[in-house]
Specification:
383 residues; alpha/beta; Dihydrodipicolinate Reductase, domain 2; Rossmann fold; 9-stranded mixed β-sheet; 6-stranded parallel β-sheet; 10 helices; 17 strands; 32% helix; binds nicotinamide-adenine-dinucleotide
Length: 383
């Protein structure tokens, strides 16, 4: 049987995505300690003139994600563009300068970064560094008067996240986390089917994200990464569970998997599985690994199921429900995410994926580690 609303859904998404570049269908808004809602929104462009101004973005850290995803996405954005870079490698600076026609005055290194405050070309700083460096550069960017996007995970401790939020608040600058899947139609549909209870109450969410990691990278350093696959890719399971359920779990239990490769995993976990408990009895069963490829999100509800596989990739996400395959547009997630943030800056409104969401997730990640370390069921309070 076919998914009866496919054509409507597809049309709705196409209209939505093309009419409102970068606008997510749902917005994060913390309501109470243990619940939040995904608010359906009008397109950001509804009723207003399309702003002509394109905000200038500077990428900090020109590694794989900046090079292969963000810079190409910034060639497709409508409301922001790549105008600056921050890099410690002069050869990269030269290469990027000619590839993206950057002017010399918009090229910074980590030492002269703070002088970016005198540069009116740059409105937004996007921090794409190893996790342990996020806090320092977000705070420095805010102090330099720039709005900030920070990559996930927001930081390696709850305290750092709080400091980052405070720095942006003190400087009256907006802060957003690079949660691109909040702009991706298949993941948004999981949120919609879950929160609107299309198949009734969800009983079980299953989420898995893992990859076979190369050796000798900062992601395997506890100091640089803050942890292993949980910090890097398991965070997508946390996110997927929360936006599919539309509410917060009340407790977590967790178990670290065995280490079969001590060369790669001397400092961080190789794999980890955990279970979230929800009020009312629903559970979420999650797994992350740096040794196995996994990419899955599924909800089993009273009257049916819905799932994505792969669920969290940049491209090629596939979805299916109890009624048939999902047929939704494939979008440039990063372009939509950055355009949405630029719109927020232009309209002075909070991002759907704000620093507070990054903080919430780091609190949950820390609770998962605590549950694995102690073997105890950890209650999730004050999210
Ligand atoms: P990467 O290793 O490819 O790049 C890291 C960059 O940081 C490099 O350019 C490196 O030169 C620079 N750097 C500066 N100081 C450094 C130091 N002391 N040690 C190591 N590198 C240093 O990593 P990446 O994959 O680009 O990841 C960067 C950030 O982006 C991470 O926080 C990661 O979680 C995040 N990320 C997010 C997504 C997403 O889908 N949202 C995807 C990939 C990465």
């Amino acid at each position: 049987m076919n998914f009866t609303n496919i054509s409507t859904s597809r049309r709705k998404f196409i209209q939505h995505v093309s009419g409102a570049i970068g606008t997510s269908l749902f917005a994060f808004s913390a309501k109470t300690a243990n619940s939040f809602s995904f608010r359906e929104e009008l397109p950001a462009t509804a009723g207003i003139q399309q702003p002509e101004k394109q905000l200038g973005i500077a990428l900090v850290g020109l590694g794989k994600y900046s090079t292969e995803q963000l810079a190409p996405a910034l060639q497709e954005t409508k409301r922001c563009k790549l105008v600056g870079i921050v890099t410690g490698t002069p050869e990269k600076a030269e290469k990027w300068k000619s590839k993206y026609s950057l002017v010399d005055k918009n090229i910074y290194d980590y030492q002269n970064f703070d002088s970016i405050k005198n540069n009116p070309d740059i409105d937004i700083v996007y921090v794409v560094l190893p996790n342990s460096m996020h806090a320092e550069y977000v705070i420095r960017a805010a102090k330099a008067g720039k709005h900030v996007i920070c990559e996930k995970p927001m930081a390696v401790s709850v305290q750092e996240c709080e400091d980052m939020i405070k720095a942006c608040k003190d400087a009256s600058r907006l802060l957003s986390i690079g949660y691109r899947l909040h702009f991706e139609p298949y993941n948004l549909t999981m949120a919609e089917l879950g929160t609107k209870k299309t198949y009734g109450e969800i009983k079980l969410v299953t989420a898995r994200d893992g990859m076979d990691i190369e050796p000798n990278v900062w992601r395997l350093s506890k100091k640089m990464a803050g942890g292993g696959p949980l910090m890097d890719v398991g965070i997508y399971c946390v996110q997927g569970v929360l936006y599919t359920m539309g509410k917060y779990p009340i407790a977590v239990t967790a178990k670290e998997g065995p280490k079969t490769d001590m060369k790669r995993f001397s400092e961080v976990e190789q794999s980890l599985s955990w279970q979230f408990d929800f009020a009312g009895g629903a559970i979420a069963s999650c797994e992350t690994s740096y040794a196995d490829e996994m990419n899955f999100l599924r909800a089993d509800a009273e009257r049916g199921w819905f799932q994505l596989e792969p669920a969290y990739e940049y491209k090629g996400i596939k979805g299916e429900t109890a009624k048939g395959k999902l047929d939704l547009p494939h979008v440039n997630q990063q372009a939509l995410q950055m355009d949405d943030f630029a719109t927020c800056v232009l309209q002075n409104k909070k991002s759907k994926v704000p620093g507070e969401m990054g903080l919430r997730d780091v609190k949950i990640l820390m609770a998962i580690y605590e549950a694995a370390r102690t073997g105890k069921r950890i209650e999730l309070k004050n999210l």
